[in-house]
Amino acid sequence: MRRIFATFRIALRALRRNKLRTLLTMLGMIIGVAAVISAIGIGNGAKAQVEAQIAGLGQNVVSVFPGSTTAGGMRGGWGSMSTLTPEEAKAIEAEVPGVVAVSSEVRERQQVMANGLNWNTQILGESPDYLSVRAWGLESGEMFTEADVNSAAKVAVIGKTIVDQLYSGADPVGETIRIRNMPFKIVGVLTPKGVNFFGQDQDDVVIVPYTSAMRRVARRQYLSAILIQAAAPDEMPRIQDDVTGLLQQRRPGRDPDFIVRNQLELAEAATATSKTMTWLVGAIASISLVVGGIGIMNIMLVSVTERTREIGIRMAVGARGRDILLQFLTEAVTLSILGGVIGIITGFVISHFISTKTSWPSLISPTSVVIAFVFSAAVGIFFGFYPARKASRLDPIDALRYE
Amino acid sequence: METQPVIELDDIQKVYHTGEVDVHAVRGVSLKVMPGEFVAVMGASGSGKSTLMNTLGCLDRPTQGRYLLDGIDVSRLDRDELADIRNQKIGFVFQGFNLLSRTSAIENVELPMFYTHRKISGHEQRERALKALDLVGLAARADHHPNQLSGGQQQRVAIARALVNEPALLLADEPTGNLDSQTSIEIMGVFQKLNDQGMTVVMVTHELDIAQYTKRTIVMRDGKVLTDTPVTNRLKAEVELEKLRDAQKSVQLS
Prior knowledge:
Number of strands of chain A: 12
Number of helices of chain B: 8
Shape of chain A: elongated
Oligomer: heterodimer
Strand content of chain A: 15-25%
Distance between the termini of chain B: 59 Å
Structural class of chain B: alpha/beta
Distance between the termini of chain A: 34 Å
């Protein structure tokens, strides 16, 4: 142990002797490791942000949208068809196992008014289960009930943006909001959710019972979507199949005029991008580590040549080949680890700097630090071995005579 | 009890296979060196004395013949075993001093102990190194670096390094080759003192007057021992130094 420590001390002394050379050699490692650490940090931060936003869409949600219409050769796109009914939503809830909550959804943009102010916003007709499906909470008041749905009551739960626009931020529970000039009583205010994955303000919304939305606001018989919450993430694909089967069964002999999506697909698409980025960064980083390693190898070869006489002296007084090998290997590893550690610190600083200058969060995991450290040590061993072995195989007589 | 020779060479031959012609550097040398001897090996360049020294120093193996060092047959040992023998049995002193630069005198002296397999505590290492430096009269300069020392002082550090592991044999390769005449005599004084204390010294030199300080002279030619004679009218370093000082004084007085 003392021996290893002494060898390490000799290595440090040798590196101190050529400070500029040592620094330049380490630079390759420093840049490589710093790039890895900061890029992975920012990548992880972005991934965490995306995951949080996807989780904000709801928990384990399977959605059903109506199919597309074609009128006079013009195809309307998903959702343009009017086929989904509240009865189908009820059937799904009753017949598909593993379903925790179902919400029938009606979407409509309307002008809303209160306190002499007006505002164009998204009106959502939903079931009381909607908040559970979207994993959404209430800041004040409460959600409307099943009874309100059955009676198509004129009650509403509003988002924070509406509170700010029409009530100047004051608690509006108990107040009245007019939708299509009909008074709706505000029973609750949603907790702010912020901007979603697609850049939309999720708090710019008024939620009413879907029956009220169908009869009083949108005045139509069909739903914009059915949102289904699964009990567990791994049940989502099965529920997706079951719902497809059930809805197809209710449309005998017709082509499917609906589409069933599950949240995992969205999450996968989003994480696929960040996975590609991680691989790309990893590839670039490993190239720079290899370049850094070659730099170390180069300088170690120079060092061995320069210190041939020293090697000869050490051998003359009894150093075995192994002792010389260990000495130069220690030097190379010290060089690369030192570079690695400085690189890790630099990476920290860079990612911190970037995340404060931009709004990208950065998340440096201990794993990436450990991996960077182990990798830099491995680079030192790999690229230091050849020069060290060359040194250890010198003939003592030739080495002593070397000028 | 019969005393064992420190060196026992039995028909040592060394052939270098370089290029097309084989070079017979040493062609059958047999000799014995007993403990407490002080031997000078002399000869023109190409006489095989350097090759013989490398063999004696266990830096190289003979092509043929047997070499017993302190009773151990070292002629068939591998590289690592030879390294251990060099560490334990032999102290080297070179013409060019061969100290590690930018390393203090005491650390240079401690160097052989770094490669000793038996564990020596840091404290003991320092103590032994200081003792060796004291023996060559340089204890006061233990923390000086080689570039702060004169040639003679550097050679003393090298001698201290050679002594630190208490070897059976002190080998010196042209130890005075880079020194002026007065310093040369001083260094020979150090060797004589060590030899008086019982150390066996074998030295290569081409200077006849330096060889006069030893007890036995071996002259080599064409890879063979030409003459092997005891030194008559041996010089004493102290006396010679005294004479030199008187001479210098008289020059200054006149």
